[in-house]
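Sample entry copied in:
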Amino acid sequence: MKNKEQNSSDALSKKQVIAIVITAIVILILWLLNLIVLIKHHSNAANSPIGDRGTFGDMFGAVNSLFSGLAFGGIIWTILLQRNELKLQREESKQSRDEAIEQNKTLRLQRFENTFFNMLTLQNEIVKSLQTPRFTGRLVISQAQKDLFAFLSIENYNKLNGLTNLAPRTNSLSDTPQNHSSARAMLDNFYHKKFYDYYGNSFNHYFRHLYHIFKFIYFSKLERNEKKFYAGLIRAQLSQEELYLISFNILMEDYGKPNFLFLTKEYDILQNFDWTDVNPIAFKELIEYELINVSNPFT
């Protein structure tokens, strides 16, 4: 771009030189013609009538007018040159602004990615550091998912052959919730009093930090499609067992609801979740109901 502008400036200078040379030649020719006329009539000037002498003198006024016109033309030419220079300066200024905007965007993206991937690394470290009296790391997530699954119904509990840390919610299949309202009541009673009482110390940091990664994306200056891209990177690292725990955590007031619930909907965190383990179906209906009806808590 700069080379092109420089070439335009050079071409303009050549035109200017040519114009000056032509103007000088025209002026010189006019002076020569005027000189010839003066010499031709000089010998007869003494014998000429006064009127003829006055007419002859008026010729100098014409020459003065010529030079005045040339001077005015020079001013116009200068204005045109200045206008062209100002145009080039505006183009250079616009290019500089565009480059600065692009550079700022690149730097902003670099800062975002540095923070984002550091947070992602820390999240993986948090998973590795999960611990209960019996398990560590991802085994804690696996066991927590089994305990939550077993709670939902005695049928689920029996499927696991008692391989849970927590007692089942009920010993009667007749206690199965029939709609999302009854599922909500059962979940509120169990999640606070049993499940989170046992796993709270292990998962508090896990859920809080995961939530803040998505919140960091949400409040970044990225374009919407870029936000979805980075949210997808996190989603790709979440196992089915993690998605299972998230799907229930976002239902609970003072835990994942409403903030994490909204971000789950915004970035479709449960996109790859296998819903077959959410049984009875009333709990699935509860999750879907909450996702549909959640409003933006950040506005």
Notes: The longest helix spans residues 50-129. DSSP finds nine helices and no strands in the chain.
